[in-house]
Design a protein that fits this description.
- By secondary structure, the chain is an alpha/beta fold.
- Helices cover 42% and strands 16% of the residues.
- The protein contains 31 helices and 28 strands.
- The strands form 6 sheets. The chain has a 7-stranded parallel β-sheet, sandwiched between helices.
- A hairpin with a 2-residue loop joins β19 and β20.
- α15 packs across α22 and α16 packs parallel to α26.
- The longest helix is centred in the N-terminal third of the chain and has 18 residues.
- The N and C termini lie far apart (59 Å).
Length: 843
């Protein structure tokens, strides 16, 4: 069916469209063409995806069609009651803003409709009202949507839903939350076959894939792209006064004075960091440098108490907060119209992530968005050059849906059994309607069903795993306690155990991972939520604190926050390193020139199709450095495989260190690396088995199994009235892992754990592509007299664990002074830049 302008919708909704356009006109707005196309497509019965730049009006582009439908009913004198429009957002923090945005046209057009939110932050009074009567327009999250599906009356309650809008779909689609949402939507389509789905997304190169995941495997989506470019203007803040950046590090506090000088409360600004710990340190540093800014400066990250985050967000909107240091907690959703500047501390590790953050500034259609990037070390200047070049070429990372995660399916089966029950054949067909599960086999479905009915082959003796009961072909959950526990643990968001932090007066500050609290002594100072605190006591999974005076840099470090560079960015880095030698120098090229000159003197700078290999000897032993520039996860996998393959050629013990740029394999004893390095070492043949053997996959799979066991309900994180610590969860999941490994080694959840380990720890698919790229290109092998500037940070990876921060910094600075350009020519360059080997030739 073709997509056109408003005439395509037919006469049935002509009056509704007139009312919507009239409301736009009352605001002084003219609908964009992409909005009109989306409205017409919805009203003609289509589902699809809207892809347009930030600040262009995507919300009304998706909501305008359903609104016109409701307006048409109102014009005819009768609006059908009950849930009609479901707006799903990944962030409950923005639900209030979305609710207000959707309410405005409903109220001003005089429609007799309720617009409400339902998230974890919704008040008990509103939840009680919604229990008896849902609003016509409901703003919710994937988790709250799943909770609705557990209601016994879900089929009747949700049967009138006409539209689902998926906000920020690019953030959901590649995660288990996206898979959970896909399954929830297939369930909804079973209740309401006329339901249309519209996803709203930032720019994706694989928009058709994301659209299909949103609308389901049995529909053909419309992809609507708005011709409203918002070019990203990227500039880089470099040290002033003749200072230079360090060769290693990630906090970037050496740039604190430069950043403070570039900021002003007169220009509302967001200062993004990559980790919560880094945000805490930067906020503290700016407070020290500019104490007069404290009344208008704030800190925002996901571990800070919800009330404080709301205060900061509101302050940005009304102008009383002018500078905010934040993490990805402010990447999405909330619009801050007065925001003028965005700074990014350190590399964002991905092109799409930087575009998303840059889009927070000048949040208006067709207005360029500007981001100032602050490198924390020399190679990040290259990363920013690469990002700028990639943006000029229009390159951005795709988002791929998760392929049929079985743990999510197991949870979904219990949800469906609670929500009115199901029959096997009907639910199997329904689940296959989700794009991520369309190739699910009957055997896999039956296996998952056996897990929820009797715990599968190995756990049938334990009554707690007998959750779903089958009577006359209908699967339900008759046990009220099991129902309550499932509803309390719905969702796929898992994290290491956290502890609530409260003042002794009772006011909450937020949550910190329990391992950090466990290392604290009573009376010890630490920094959290931008405040210096002292631990008063720890009781009932709550850390009670008091305000403290003085200074400390002891800051929580949250796990899972070191992001590897994306595949698109790694390609851009290799290209930019090669081009930096040939292009006319600009400010960035001049800034990086001393670093690159030292690299050229001591070793070589690889070309775009080359992989640099350095072999050197120090007092620590014999080193092999390889530089694929593929991100720390892939590089770590590469190092583990290389160590395994080298040990097969000659018995030896190796240690491996990796960063985003390369990997070090170190032998304390003499080892002839040069003789071993060649195409055979990097062959993709047997890579999967070598990767599994080189890593302690059983140990890593046991750790990963905790998440899978939590999502699938094999272990329970929260019971009514009490929670469990991460250690308790790990102990429970480890016991189940051991039982399944011994008695049911082909268990699908065990297989999933191993698969996720290879994917998350080594990015297995990307690792294979890396080996093939190395073999298809050239090896540039250089024997050096000392580690080069590229290999220097890899030494720091190991030294950091053995030296104090002061002695480490002294050693770093001494090594850099020794190696900087201007010292006598290095004998390491003896082979005229090294020798090249075509990887296709034998060694």
């Amino acid at each position: 069916m073709p997509v056109g302008t408003k005439s395509t919708a037919g006469n049935e909704h002509a009056r509704g469209l007139e009312m919507v356009e009239g409301w736009f006109a009352s605001r002084g707005w003219e609908p964009w063409e992409f909005q009109r196309l989306a409205w017409a497509a919805f009203l003609s019965g289509r589902s699809g995806l809207i892809q347009v730049s930030t600040g262009a009006g995507k919300t009304y582009g998706a909501f305008g069609g359903p609104l016109a439908m409701l307006c048409s009913e109102h014009a005819r004198g009768h609006v059908r009651r009950g849930l009609r429009v479901l707006y799903v957002s990944p962030l409950r923090a923005v639900s209030r803003d979305v609710e207000m945005a959707l309410s405005e046209p409903v109220i001003e057009l005089g429609l007799p409709l309720r617009v409400e939110s339902r998230t974890g932050d919704t008040s008990d009074a509103v939840k009680r009202r919604q229990k008896s009567s849902l609003p016509e327009v409901l703003v919710t999250t994937p988790e709250s949507l799943t909770l609705l599906l557990t209601r016994p009356d879900a089929p009747e309650l949700l049967s009138g839903c006409d539209a689902v809008i998926l906000d920020e779909w690019h953030e959901l689609v590649a995660s288990k939350r996206g898979s959970q949402t896909e399954l929830a939507l297939t369930r909804l389509r079973g209740f309401s076959p006329r339901m249309r789905t519209w996803a709203v997304s930032a720019t994706l190169p694989n928009a058709a894939v994301a659209a299909r995941a949103a609308v389901g495997a049995r529909d053909t989506p419309v992809v609507i792209e708005g011709d409203m470019p918002r070019p990203v203007e990227l500039d880089v803040l470099l040290p002033r006064g003749g200072r230079t950046l360090p060769w290693a590090g990630h906090l970037g506090l050496v740039m604190a004075e430069d950043v403070a000088a570039s900021l002003s409360p007169s220009a509302p600004s967001l200062v993004f960091t990559n980790t919560r710990s880094q945000a805490e340190r930067w906020y503290s540093a700016l407070r020290v440098l500019r104490p007069e800014w404290e009344p208008v400066m704030a800190l925002h990250h996901g571990s800070i108490d919800r009330g404080e985050r709301t205060r900061v967000e509101q302050g940005l909107k009304d102008g009383c907060v002018r500078i905010v240091v934040a993490t990805s907690s402010l990447d999405l959703g909330v619009d801050f119209a007065p925001l003028e500047r965005v700074l990014q501390i350190g590399s964002p590790k991905g092109i799409a992530r930087l575009v998303q953050r840059a889009g927070r500034s000048s949040h208006r259609p067709r207005t360029p968005c500007r981001v100032t990037c602050v490198p924390t070390h020399m190679m990040e200047v290259v990363e920013f050059m690469a990002t700028r070049n990639a943006l000029a070429r229009g390159e951005i990372e795709p988002r791929e849906p998760s392929p049929k995660p079985i743990d999510v399916l197991v949870q979904h089966l219990v949800t469906c059994a609670l929500g009115g029950g199901f029959t096997r054949e009907a639910l199997l067909a329904e689940v296959r309607g989700a794009a991520s599960f369309e190739d699910l086999t009957a055997e896999e479905f039956d296996w998952a069903l056996s897990m929820v009915t009797h715990g599968g082959e190995s756990l049938r003796a334990y009554e707690s795993f007998h959750k779903v009961v089958e009577r006359d072909g209908l699967f339900t959950v008759p046990d009220r306690r099991i129902a309550a526990i499932h509803r309390l643990n719905v969702g796929t968001i898992t994290s290491d155990g956290t502890i609530e932090v409260k003042y002794t007066s009772g006011r909450s500050l937020g949550r910190i991972e329990e391992d950090f609290i466990a290392r604290l002594r009573e009376g010890q100072k630490f920094v959290f939520a931008g405040k210096v605190l002292t631990l008063a006591r720890f009781r009932d999974l709550v850390a009670y604190v008091r305000p403290a005076t003085g200074k400390t840099t002891f800051t929580p470090i949250w796990s899972g926050t070191r992001l590897p560079i994306s595949e698109s960015l790694s390609q851009a880095i290799r290209r930019s390193l090669s081009e930096a030698q040939a292009t006319d120098p600009d400010a960035l090229s001049r800034a990086i020139r001393p670093f690159l000159e030292t690299q050229r003197r001591t070793s070589a700078i690889p070309g775009a199709d080359e992989t640099l290999v350095e072999i050197t000897r120090t007092r620590e032993g014999h080193h092999l450095f390889v530089f694929p520039f593929e991100g720390r996860l892939v590089n770590a996998g590469l190092g583990a495989v290389l160590a395994l393959r080298l040990s097969r050629r000659a018995p030896a013990t190796f240690s491996v260190a990796a960063n985003d740029y390369g990997v070090e394999v170190l032998s304390a004893e003499p080892f002839d690396f040069e003789h071993c390095v060649g195409p055979g070492l990097f062959s993709p043949e047997g890579l999967a088995s070598d990767a599994a053997e080189s890593a302690n996959t059983n140990f890593l799979a046991k750790l990963q199994f905790r998440e899978i066991a939590r999502v699938s309900g094999l272990v329970v994180q929260s019971y009514p009235g009490r929670g469990r610590t991460a250690k308790q969860l790990q102990a429970g999941s480890s016991l189940i892992f051991d039982v399944l490994s011994e008695f049911e080694p082909r268990n699908l959840l065990l297989r999933q754990a191993t698969s996720e380990v290879m994917s998350r720890h080594y990015e297995a698919g990307r690792l294979d592509r890396t080996f093939r790229r190395i073999v298809g290109g050239s090896l540039r092998i250089v024997r050096t007299a000392r580690p080069s500037p590229l290999s220097f940070p890899l030494l720091i990876e190991r030294l950091a664990g053995r030296l104090s921060s002061r002695s480490l910094l002294e050693r770093i600075e001494a090594m850099r002074r020794e190696w900087e350009p201007g010292c006598e020519e290095d004998s390491a360059h003896s082979s005229a830049g090294g020798r090249r080997r075509r990887a296709s030739r034998s060694s």
